[in-house]
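Example (one chain per record):
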Amino acid sequence: MSDTTRVPRIISLFDVYVTTSDDHLQADDTSNPGHPNYERLGLSAAQATDWDDRRQEWDDLYDKYGTKGTRTDVVREQVANFMKSFREFANPLLNMMAANPAATVLDGAKLNFKLTRKAPSKRTTQITETIFPSIQSLGGNEFFFSFRAIADSKRASLLKGVDSVIAWYKIVTNEPVSASIEPDETWNSIVFYKSRNTFKTPAGSKGKYLLIAFQWAYTPNRALAGPVCGVKIELIS
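Predicted structure:
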């Protein structure tokens, strides 16, 4: 059942919530720099943009409500309607984020939800299983990645006991001729929290080559990460 108490009904508290929640969703994910929190929590870019647009709309409306000369009956009605509409928009997304395995206590505090996912068992052993990635070029500098374990031959899924995938990547001008390439300290890294993901390379990289490798990971202890798979070489189109 949806929790309808997450978004405050008192106007002043609602104002704080809309601002705080949007700031948190748009903020950089400290565990995965360069990527916003909303991405880790499972929101699409369109959903996050919609949340931000509503925040901007609310800011303008709340300014009118807070000014004596413009706090008319019409504005009061607009405020009530906006709050109702925002709750209907936000609650399904909050339910989804609360159940996301990557959600943290801080997310819950900023977005006013209790984590509803099953408590994961604490991993203490090294990950030894190899990851099997699939890569598809989508054009426009974008790729689609999916991951699976050897036991899941027919579908993408995260390995049991892990909560993320680390990707190591580098963009080069010329196609490598060596068959043995391994990531080193000059490579970039990014963390994925789902078994299916999209990834966009920087502007100006079209025609170059993406070198990328993956490994299973466990966020609370990255030292337990699994073996890095062989480096894949993809032309950026």
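Caption: The chain has a mean pLDDT of 89.
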